[in-house]
Structures are given as C-alpha cells and as structure tokens.
Amino acid sequence: xDTEANGNLxxxxxxxxxxxxxxxxxLATQPHLPQVQEHDIALFLHANYGDLEATQRTIENYxxxxxxxxxxxxxxxxxxxxxxxxxxxxxITMLPGETKEGYKMIYTRLLTSDTTHFNHPQILKLITMCxxxxxxxxxxxxxxxxxxxxxxxxxxxxxKLNMGAAKKHMFYVQEALPIRLKQIHFINVVPFMNQLMFxxxxxxxxxxxxxxxxxxxxxxxxQAVPVESLPNEYGGNGGSFDELEKSFKDKLYAHNDWxxxxxxxxxxxxxxxxxxxxxxLFGLF
Length: 285
Fold this sequence. Notes:
This protein has helices spanning 4-7, 17-27, 38-47, 52-68, 70-73, 81-89, 120-138, 155-158, 163-176, 193-200, 206-209, 218-224, 241-254, 256-262; strands spanning 90-94, 103-110, 143-149, 181-187, 212-215. By secondary structure, the protein is of the alpha/beta class. It has a five-stranded mixed β-sheet. A hairpin with an 8-residue loop joins strand 1 (90-94) and strand 2. The chain is globular. The N and C termini lie far apart (42 Å).
C-alpha cells in the first residue's frame, strides 16, 4: 500500500492528524503487529470513515489474516505456473472513470468456460492479489464497486468450488481489506444463481448481502453504473475486453516485486501477542 501517491496525506482529506496520532499510540501497545506507516494508517482510517475502533479491527484483521492464510498470501510470483494458469482463466481489470459519487469499479469475467484447469483457491489467490493492487492504486476513492460477469459459468464450476477458501476470501474482503465497498453487481446472472448464493450467503454480512444487485441483461446494468466506463462489448467506451485485460496484466507484472516483498513483510508476530485478560467469575479473577 505504500505508494508515492498514497504517501501524501493530502490524498486523505477526511483523515485528521489527531486520529492518526491516536492510532499510532494504540499500535505502540500492540507489539505483535508490524510497524504501520502513516499513509497506511490513513488508508485504514479512510476505509472506516474515521471510526477509530473500526479502524483498529480492520488493521488487526488485515495483518493477522495475511500472516495466517499463507496459502493465499505466499507464493505470489505472478509469473509462476499456477498464477499464469489462473490468468488464462479469469480476467480482472479496473474500469476507467468513476461513478458520479466518486466510486471506483473493478470487473471480473471468465476467459474460458472449460473447467479442466479451474483451480478455485488459485483463482481466489489471483483475485486477492488484484484487489490488493486495486487498494494500492485507488484506495483513496470515495467508494468501491465490484462487477462480476458470470458469462461462461456453468454447473461444472460449482463442483470445483472450495468453500473453505471462499470463506477465508470473503472474510478478507469484508473484514480486512481497506476499501469502502458500496455495491456488488452480478452480470449475466446464471439460472443456478440461487444455489450459488445459498452456498456463499453464510459467509456474508447482512449489509454486504444488501449491496448485491443481479443483472440478467445489460439494460439494468446501464442504469446502475456509468455506461462510458463499461467495456466496449457492453456498450461502453472503457476499452475492449482484450485491451482491458492486457492493461491490467501489465500492471500486475509491473508490481511483481511488490507482491513478492509483501509475502515476508508486515506480518504478525504471534509470540508477541498479548493474551486477553481472563474474565471474572463470581467476583474472582
């Protein structure tokens, strides 16, 4: 998250110096947490609208989850075979522009309907990397919108789902990732969407469930997000699927060293975590 752009505290007009000082004082009492730079503290505060308690929870969740979920947050060389295979299956890109409210958008779609090499944990690992990069580049947006295109998805994909990995992924997105999630749009909704939601709803907070919008066709999508930001194939001017895919791939490749560095930096030291106080029982400690 430590970019030159994000490093300027002027990028966070809703974050006060006083709140940053308070968070630094709190961090000094948490020896298990890594050193968190001021601009990263500002990012967490921004994502939580300046709420100090919520920001503390997000910081704790962010670093603890990245340290414990090593299957997702290690081995992040974008050029390795597993991630290259995931890139050949799933397209993820940031859409240009923003909504009238200043929300930034990220879009995903399958590149192939063939499930032969569909490895759900690796797909989620790739998506997580892309979300991390999204935060690095556009974390100071007023809000964030996810658009998930289901074109090409069929029942065979459901047999490949790893619900353990999905649960961890959804915890990271909802409880740890420093974004202001505003809307989730499913495009080209498939007939078995109800079954899919039945599997994933237990992992969703109620407020996140209420963010979900379903689009069977593009008419309702055009009413929900700026048409000019959508891919050309969907009536927009954001660029073709091929152009958008290549553009974001180039960003991933350019940040490969950052992904590799993040694997071993800013991790939690569990040996220094302070144990929680014991509860009182019948007036006794």
